[in-house]
Amino acid sequence: SGQDNYFSHMRDSTISSIIRDTGVDYMENRPVILYMNGEYWGIYYMHEQANEDYLAYNHNIDNPKNIDLLKGNGFIKSGDYKAYKELLAYFKSHDMSKKDNYEYAKTKIDIVEYIDYQIIQIYCANADNGNLKYWCERNESAKWRWIIFDMDWTFYNSKQNTFSIAFNPEGTGFDNRFHNTFIVGLLKNDEFKKLFVERLIYHLNNTFATERVLRIIEEHEAMIKDEMPFQIKRWGTHSSIEKWERIVNDMK
């Protein structure tokens, strides 16, 4: 469970379950107990990989090589940077408050998926939201979509203003290293802002309804609770099972 290994050991998996029905791309996973040559190795998570094969399978794309998959500020994981670079240049040179420009943007970006992606990052208070992956199939009608992955630094600081982090014109992620060109531009458009607020209200009342989120946290807690004493003994990740339980309660 990444850097959450010494904390709840279940943040990334829990977030995946919470957002499962949003329509945003995420990594399905489940906890497993690992033995190597008969030696106990602890609790691991078997999960999908956010690569072109995952995207082709989940979106019924015949050829995974026909996918542009990028990371961060444009690092190429699959395909190439050309279409994304052109879209980025368009946003930098066009005012999204103007109807025609926004209508064009809607043909290139899955707007609802992008809004939902942003809301997930904001609600979960992801302290490491520079983990960016986004993709598009290479055809005229395809739109760019974003992928939720690596959520091991979520649900830590409930005091931070995650809206200002997500919408910072200077950038987002560690040291604001990752550009915010799309969201900053789109927020200048009244239609987009209205849709954003509507989606936010929906998710707060459904996806992130308090009772639902608590139930899912408790489900994931129950999955590994009986195994955590052995995990702690094997790796010394916590001083006691009571310490782990306090960490999970902090999440709640």
Summarize the structure in words.
The chain has 252 residues and is α+β, with helices and mostly antiparallel strands. 44% of the residues lie in helices and 13% in strands. It has helices at residues 11-18, 52-58, 82-93, 99-108, 111-123, 162-166, 181-186, 190-205, 210-225, 228-235, 241-251; strands at 29-36, 39-47, 67-71, 75-78, 133-137, 145-147. The chain has a four-stranded antiparallel sheet. The chain has a two-stranded antiparallel sheet with strand order 1-2. Helix 1 crosses helix 9 and helix 5 (111-123) packs across helix 8. The longest helix has 16 residues, at 190-205. The protein starts with 10 loop residues before the first helix and ends with a helix.
List the helices and strands and how they pair.
Blueprint: H1 11-18, E1 29-36, E2 39-47, H2 52-58, E3 67-71, E4 75-78, H3 82-93, H4 99-108, H5 111-123, E5 133-137, E6 145-147, H6 162-166, H7 181-186, H8 190-205, H9 210-225, H10 228-235, H11 241-251
Antiparallel strand pairs: 1-2, 3-4, 3-5, 5-6
